[in-house]
Write a structure and sequence with these properties.
8 helices; mainly alpha; 289 residues
Length: 289
């Protein structure tokens, strides 16, 4: 631990910022009884904000010359609609998938955008308010840097894929596909059973791999970005504690500015990739092997 009055060490500072405000201490790597309250609250607030903005755009939309706000929303809607048309050829499905993809893109973008806030801004506010209200002195404000959030999103996409597999192919048709693809089947009963087992296992592996990689990709990129911002914040901390810390302060400003500008591209790209993978996976659910 750090000495009295000297503040936390870099390791303690980072460990503190990586702890969630949770309902209980996590006992193992996989513990479904733990709820990260900070991620849930921030997710709900950002989701409500996105719904409000889209509702406001729809309410103010008109056929005349659009204003900047309406034009920006129309560009986003058209972009997502074109991406959905390119991979999903079922017009009925696009009525649900396109709005879903737009919501996913904006929601994840806003989750990622929380990483651009100063590292200690909201945690320091919570440091004063949280314990006073009976909560613990922990707060993480980047939901997409929480594995439970990203895997929850990718699992939702998996459930949508299962829904469309059954809807498009029928329960019997999808069940037949599970045991006949990708290696086909055989007229020989023994080989048919063996191939059916292998095909089914391959299909399960594919579903699990897509879901895990879908969530882990977003989590890994945002978690790494969050760590970089913490390290940059430590430069500012060293500058504040040292009379000769001018170079640290300059490094803090330069590194923070450069990484923030670059991170704008990262958060947008990650939201776009997650949206595109969502539409691609849903499109694959419409196709037969």
């Amino acid at each position: 631990m750090a000495a009295e009055g000297t503040g936390p060490t870099p390791g303690e500072y980072i460990r503190h910022h990586l702890v969630h405000l949770s309902n209980k201490k996590q006992e193992s790597i996989v513990d479904f009884s733990v709820i990260n309250i900070d991620s849930v609250v921030v997710n709900v607030l950002l989701g409500a904000l996105i719904c409000f903005v889209l509702w406001l755009a729809a309410r103010k939309a008109h056929a005349g010359v659009p204003g900047r706000f309406q034009a920006a929303v129309e560009i986003l809607v058209e972009m997502v609609e074109n991406q959905a048309k390119a991979v999903i050829h079922n017009a009925t499905s696009r009525k649900l998938v396109a709005p879903l993809a737009l919501t996913v893109f904006l929601w994840i973008f806003m989750m990622n955008f929380m990483d651009l806030l100063p590292v200690d801004l909201l945690p320091q506010i919570w440091h004063k308010a949280g314990p006073a209200m009976g909560f613990k002195d922990y707060l993480r404000v980047v939901p997409s840097a929480d594995l439970s959030t990203t895997l929850g999103l990718s699992t939702s996409v998996l459930l949508m894929c299962l829904f469309y597999n059954i809807k498009i192919k029928g329960l019997g048709g999808w069940a037949h596909e599970l045991v006949s693809a990708p290696f086909g089947t055989s007229k020989n009963p023994v080989w048919a059973v063996l191939l059916g087992v292998v095909n089914f296992l391959m299909q399960m592996i594919e579903f699990i791999a897509k879901t895990v990689s879908h969530g882990m990709r977003l989590f890994g990129n945002m978690f790494a970005g969050e760590l970089v911002f913490m390290l940059i914040a430590l430069l500012g901390g060293y500058a504040a504690m040292s009379l000769s810390g001018g170079l640290f302060f300059v490094g803090h400003l330069v590194a923070g500015t450069v990484w923030a500008i670059f991170h704008i591209l990262v958060i947008t790209l990650q939201a776009f990739i997650f949206m595109m993978l969502t539409t691609v996976y849903l499109a694959m659910a419409h196709e037969s092997h």
